[in-house]
User: Fold these one by one.
Assistant:
Number 1:
Amino acid sequence: MSAQLFVVSTPIGHLDDITYRAIDVLKSVKIIAAEDTRTSAQLLKHFNINTPLTACHDHNESNKIDQLIERLKNGEDMALISDAGTPLISDPGFKLVRAAQENDIRVIPVPGACAAIAALSAVGLPSDRFSFEGFLPSKQSQRLLNLEKLKDETQTMIIYEAPHRILECVKDMAQVFGADRSVGFAREITKTFETIKKMTLGELVDFVANDHNQQKGEIVLVIGGSVEEKDMEQEKLDKLLLRLLQDLSVKAASQLAADLTGIKKKIAYQRALELTQAND
Ligand code: SAM
């Protein structure tokens, strides 16, 4: 009978961010496939876990898969971990999980820390719809092309970036998305020098350029989607209409709002009607 493959999340900094279930699973499986056995050995030591480790990283993943699948088929329960956070999220593991699925081996997630989700949960940007973009290309020309493609994306975007490229990267973002676009900067999450801030891209360029410490450690950028700007426009229009409606009729208020903002009169009228009905 074939065994099970557990995909286990590990901490992204603070070691207490591991789940009871993750520890139980890591203790109970026959073998742990790890991105870097030396890094994971330290984690296992901390939690008194004596399960043997085997390497499964980007460079050997393809060759190793057959061996690991064979072991699973022979009934050896296995856990997959990466150096930090959730495997497969900008980390190795996809090929092993796909091969396990193709071989009818049950794959069981053991969820936990993920830098992208931790950043999104704390920076204060819309979280109802988001896309995970992983790392942008390191070459500037390629990076600018990618950013151009993301420019009109309406969802919040989550990007991982290396500290030595952070300044160049935020400068490029400010150039393509505009200096006014909102950005969440989440650095060293769960660690001693954790920094979580929301500002504009223009402000972030200055913040990172003027404080060299902000160019160190691990960083997640959360970029507000372009719809956020439209939401702000809507907010401004609502504010204006609500004020005008205190003294004017729907028709007069919407005419004046259209004149002042350049928005179509029909749209202003429709919105003024909605606002009056909502306030009735
Ligand atoms: N699998 C991991 C996860 O679930 O988040 C991501 C691994 S990826 C190779 C490493 C990148 O994740 C870092 O360069 C950084 O962008 C982000 N990251 C990981 N830990 C972080 C932390 N504690 N604070 C901020 N960003 C972090």
Number 2:
Amino acid sequence: MNERKIIEDIKKLKREKDAVILVHNYQLPEVQDIADFIGDSLDLSTKAKLVENKVIIFCGVHFMAETAYILSNKTVILPDISCGCPLADMITKKDVVELKRKYPDVPIVGYINTSAEVKSEIDYCCTSANAVEVVNKIPQQTVIFVPDKYLGSFVKKNTKKDIILWAGYCPTHLKILKEDILELKQKYPYAKVVVHPECNLEVQQIADKVAGTSGMIKYVQQNEDVEYFIVATEIGMCYRLKKLFPHKEFIPASKLALCPNMKKNTLEKILFSLETLQPQIVVEEEIKIKALKSIENMYKLMEK
Ligand code: CIZ
């Protein structure tokens, strides 16, 4: 079937099934093009909570679709059920239980890149957009941050709190090297460098701005006079930024920064998932209730 026909069928089925398509900033260009909403995991989780449609087609990775399910109580479909996240897999529920035993009075903040099971044991959830804010607003002085040690180190640099780090990392962001950016800076000397906090610390150090994807969008918006940006995050973000700011240029810091999981949701799979309403994401009730608490704790802190 050709792409135009697939898109027509997706639109038709979306209406018939009362579905909404939520798409993460790192998804394939053609998937971003058919989105009802595009954003980072915080934007999409909030959207999942608010939309009135019966069905959510979630184009992102597994932990994001789980979060949408926990928050929305709707039918949530992940077009390719095998879209995992190696970073999220670097900590288990058992690890968190062990941390709680070792540090009984220390609250645990878990990045949104964690499974629902892990979220059910942590105290607060956070995203790349609000990690510093969440940690700063927790009453206790010492905080455990899991699983990303680079985002955790970024938080540590921007807070007066004592942070205990977990040793997880995102393999895709670690493909971006300081040398890649320095080379690009020679070619584009006036470019601003925007770096995701999942990148290594050497890369963070040479950034003009360290921010999650929603923070990157704000930064580009604020820098009206700047034409070129070197973008150190998953490569899909350059397409997102170019669509938002067609008169500016976005240069990927490394073409190797491609998350294979983020690219698994294709138009064909989206069409199939609308036809069949499969594969659905379901989280066991007890885990769901406990995980919801850590996500709600994040929203409560953000209101403070
Ligand atoms: O919060 C998200 O969606 C992730 C995982 C990254 C980002 O900065 O958007």
Number 3:
Amino acid sequence: MAAPPPRIIAIYPGSFDPITNGHLDVIARGSRLAEKLIVAVLGNQAKQPFFRIQERVEMIQEAVHPYSNVEVDAFDGLLVDYASHRGANLILRGIRAVSDYEMELQMALMNRRLNPRLETVFLLASEEASFISSHLVREVASLGGDVSGLVPAAVAMRLKKRLAAKSV
Ligand code: PNS
């Protein structure tokens, strides 16, 4: 008799600077595919982030409150090492457009080379979220544009506060 399929412990890694409704769409759908989904926020970025790691984690924690099997954590170093440390067997990523594909392919193949037992699974972004990126959200907000509907309300508020503090 074939062995039962393994339980899915998934990691959804990213910068989440800040979390958008596009990320939340992947989290909502990913939470239905996995027994546990760990949203893992990268701490040691080369470039200076807009929000500190603790703030990014807090914003995600607030947003994922409705999902009982979703956990939020920060990580540094190699994703495959963090995944092993957490006992995860799947990496979850979202793809919006063909332009995302090249980088995602490179990362997935590199991660597979580093740990062939760790599978990467992609979810296609929902139509209404396929144009949203953290980068554009920061840009629009910093130029005074309306980002409601693109990020959770609490995130829009934090963006506003942070930008107001920066302009003083
Ligand atoms: O939201 P992002 O910036 O597209 O997320 C990129 C992320 C965090 C998934 C990626 O940079 C990553 O996994 N970094 C950890 C370092 C690592 O493992 N690098 C080698 C394999 S790609």
Number 4:
Amino acid sequence: MSELTITRVWSREVLDSRGNPTVEAQVETDAVLVTAIAPSGASTGTFEALELRDGDARYGGKGVQKAVRNVRELISPRLKGMDVSDLKAIDAAMIELDGTGNMSRLGGNATTAVSYAAAKAGAILKGIELHEHLGSSSKVLPVPCMNVINGGKHAGSNLKIQEFMIVPCGVPSFSESLRVGTEVYQSLKGVLKKSMGPMSINVGDEGGFAPAFDTSRQAMDVLLKAIEAAGYAPGKEVYLAMDAAASEFYSKGVYELDGRKMSSGEIVDFYVSLSKEYPLISLEDPVQEEGFQDMAELTAKVGGRMQLVGDDLFVTNPQRLRKGIDSKAGNAMLLKVNQIGTVSEAMRAAEICFDHGYNVMVSHRSGESEDTTIADIAVALECGQIKSGAPARTERTAKYNRLLRIEENLGSKAKFKGRGAFF
Ligand code: 2PG
Ligand code: MG
């Protein structure tokens, strides 16, 4: 038996960054034993792969013992004997075993953890870096899109927009970009504390501050101040990005945002105005998850000068992505492996994006862990962009720190697209 042959896939329940249970998978061969952890979203899209939760008394219903059992009792016997370096075959076997099209039998949390662990094990046994195992050339480090003001479901404020990000893309390398973004984060802390008091620097789920703002413009204005106070120019070294996660403030044709009730036509106009007032380089889920037409209208209006990203809209799903491409909705996709359930399917969605001129931003979830697989996926895809929250909380910085190591390892071969990663 080759040392690449899977001998067993084990699993256990561990905790994520929000203190909820999540699935850890352990892929074993005669030579190695490799673990990986599935992340978990809060503002989940309706069309995502199913995250299997026990729904019993333990952990308020959030236990994942069923998913853990599925790994041990269903996935393990199916993958036993397979070549761990053939991730496509492993992922295809899990998709076939699940058989539902949305991982509702095995649990997308079970399959994501196994897919991550198998990818890592394959890299270790081939004696190469994970990003090399996943992508043949893989020399491009991503721009870190840092969520420094948290709202929506990730914080306890009135801010409806979920994420206000800084995008330090006007610098020459990943490490410089991370430094500049982190300096702005610290500067923002000072600006907020001074103007709004110490309560304003409490942080949300993704490490960004959660001040008592009521409107998007308040958040964007303070970001401009913080960028300048750190010694940088908005729209030069540092741009802004937003994830509205608009399904969370949409109901029956009406968006409730910034103290107003807006129709879909009005919310499109609202974003067009914002894009003229601020150096906004990327806007994610500006409309609700079924708003392909509205997304197409916004893309026609501003898509030539900024990125419009589908997250809940596309859910890393090749089928929904094709619908978006056909209707010219958006010009970029957010890539989250657990939305579709396997690394291979997520990477296939990314390839479809590249074939149609869509950008890809690799993303963490709001519930994360010490697992850093997404950092390697971003490098493997050479998509040039990642979002992993603020440069605070170890589950966020773990990914940025992994990218620092990759950059150092690549040495003079490391590339950085900077602003060119966006358009
Ligand atoms: C998002 C993500 C990550 P969640 O909406 O893009 O920032 O949030 O994981 O809660 O879906
Ligand atoms: Mg999102």
